[in-house]
Amino acid sequence: MKYFVYGRDRAGAGELKERLTPEHWAFMDGYADELIARGPTLTPDGEGTTGSLHIIDLPTFEAVKTFAYDEPYYRDGVFESVLITRFESHTSGTMWDFANAVDGYERYLVHTDDAPRSLTSPHIIMYGDLVALDSDAHLGRAVLLEAPDAEAAAALAQADLAHVHPWTFGGRR
Q: Where are the alpha helices (DSSP H) in 13-85?
């Protein structure tokens, strides 16, 4: 089962997060075969982080709880909160399969309640529904995409600009 795991950074945790990054990557290395997408969300200037996104394929809810709550950033207090939902993908493959990168385009996470069920664009990296862990309740949608700027990302995902977060590929895969 695929899961969307999004830890939002606690204010003032930048130095701690930077110090823990090698430990975080080592932890993620243990999940290399299960990761579908990963990477930090960024401040608008791209100089700092605001969170850490992972889409992962794990067999049980217990396994995803272990993934989310044993992770060094969470364990040592970097995150203010962690959102865990099921992820029903509308795209195939992983973020590493994305072959349509455009020079000069930035990457974004659009996390919204109301994106349309069907999006088609060569700039979509990954797209899917967020579903409750304990029911079939629809909680929203997540889109990873490339665009020239945040406004274009919002237009492509048909979402409000407030739901657009600068994001980049993470890890060392």
A: 14-29, 61-70, 72-75
Q: Which residues pair with 39 in a beta bridge?
A: 53
Inter-residue contact 108 to 53 (CB < 8 Å): no
Closest CA to 113 of 144, 146, 143: 143
Beta strands in 32-154 (DSSP E): 35-42, 49-57, 79-89, 106-112, 124-131, 138-147
What average pLDDT does this structure show over 146-160? 92
Decide if 11 contacts 77 (C-beta within 8 A).
Answer: no
Main-chain phi, psi angles of 89, to 5 degrees: -75, 140
Bridge-based pairing state of the strands 49-57 and 124-131: unpaired
Q: What is the pLDDT of residues 1-10, one digit of tens each?
A: 999 999 999 9
Q: What distance in Å separates the CA atoms of residue 91 and residue 156, rounded to the nearest whole number?
A: 16
Question: Are 79 and 70 a contacting pair, CB within 8 Å?
Answer: no
| pLDDT digits 0-9 by tens, 49-102 | 999 999 999 999 999 999 999 999 999 999 999 999 999 999 999 999 999 999
CB atoms within 10 A of CB 27: 16
